[in-house]
Amino acid sequence: MIARISYIKQLGTFVNKPFIKVITGIRRSGKSSVLLLLRNELLSKGIEESRIIYLNFESFSSAELQNAIKLYDYIKTNIPKAKKAYLLLDEIQEVADWEKCVNSLLVDFDVDIYLTGSNSHLLSSELATFIAGRYVEIPVFTLSFAEYLQFRTHYFSEKEQDMKNSFVSYLRLGGFPVIHTADYSEETAWKIVQDIYASVILRDTVQRYKIRDVELLERIVRYAFDNIGNTFSGKNVADYFKSQQRKIDINTVYNYLHALEGAFVLYRVPRYDIKGREILKTQEKFYVGDISLLYAVMGYKDRWIAGIMENIVFLELKRRGYRIFVGKLDTREIDFIAEKQGKKIYIQVAYKLDREDTVAREFNTLLEIKDQFPKFVITMDDFWQESVEGVRHLHISDFLLNDV
After folding, report:
1. Do the Cβ atoms of 301 and 308 come closer than 8 Å?
2. 325: which of 80, 271, 273, 358 lies 20 to 30 Å off by Cα?
3. What is the mean pLDDT for each group of 10 consecutive residues in the chain (404 residues)?
């Protein structure tokens, strides 16, 4: 098992702190592995194994504990006396009324609690008020480009790698850890991701949100996937279906998009008006939880390359903890405005700077922003000048491997 160091460091900051640690992310992104890595880390620090209770609620061995009272009684019976216990509860959303159980454990025992869940709305229910203010959320994503290279080195001894060629492979395979543990072809990898997608749609979307029209949900998925990197609204989706002689209520569109966000299939990115300094409520962008989902559902299309690159940059910004917006400057668009701890970066993403109008479009918009925050144009060009009046140009692999 390969250590995903960034997540262990984040968790390490909160070990023995009075917060419930909630690890969230799409299915098969590596949450369970992170939890087991944490278990190994605790053992390496001298914590006795008897003080660590690990339960995976997707395992049949824990099926009888998928009830708050039964889980509480089990832990009460097995918890060590007069010593702090470490509770590692994997896929906690499978336990009915889990929030009541976790709250009681926190009140009644000396425990350090770690949870994983495959739904971003895990903490937004009314029941979650039981632990409000007493938890910290740590999102886990599919493999970053740097982690992908680490996997290639570990499993295939690729110690000296051509980063640009490696990036093309990463772009075509995506980041689900399981597909990088063996030398799968693109076709086989996408088949594996199809199975992951089917599980996510069924268990974390259809069942959890009680969606009745699965065929309509799939159509909305395809519309969103086909518009990665483009702004659109629920009305655009409803109008599209209307043109296909199928009437659909806008609220239904938003409910289904909300469910897909909850399952980490999609991420919604709002627009920010730079001059007006306000968040706009229309024409948002959506990005997929991993680009391989796009291929598994729709196949690969060359015309998507710019949107796919945007998606990869977006996920990297999320991993780095940025709050992300699509920028609006008059009638022009800035792909990303990313903010963190009072700092800000502006990013334009383009496939190639092979035409003068493309160069002008990508650089001139950034040059019109007069603040002193860093500005970048990210492409797949093998070579182009490094900067234009302070706006830096980077190959996407360089951006992904360096925290600029």
Report:
1. no
2. 358
3. 90 94 95 96 96 95 94 96 95 91 93 93 71 88 96 83 90 96 94 97 93 94 94 91 88 94 96 85 91 96 94 98 93 94 95 88 91 95 79 95 86
Name the token pair of 336: 């990303």
Cα–Cα distance, 401 to 262 (Å, whole number): 29
Q: Where would I find the H helices in 27-110?
A: 31-44, 68-78, 98-108
Kind and range of the H or E element at 151? helix 145-156
Q: Is the domain of 108 the same as that of 178?
A: no
Angle between helix 214-226 and 234-243 (nearest 10) = 110
CA distance 290 to 189: 13
83 CB-side CA count, 13 A: 14
pTM of the model as a whole: 0.94
Q: Which of 87, 119, 139 is the last residue of a domain?
A: 139
CATH code where residue 66 lies: 3.40.50.300
Contact status, residue 30 vs residue 177, Cβ threshold 8 Å: yes
Report the distance separating Cα 24 and Cα 137, nearest Å: 7
- Boundaries of domain holding 133: 5-139
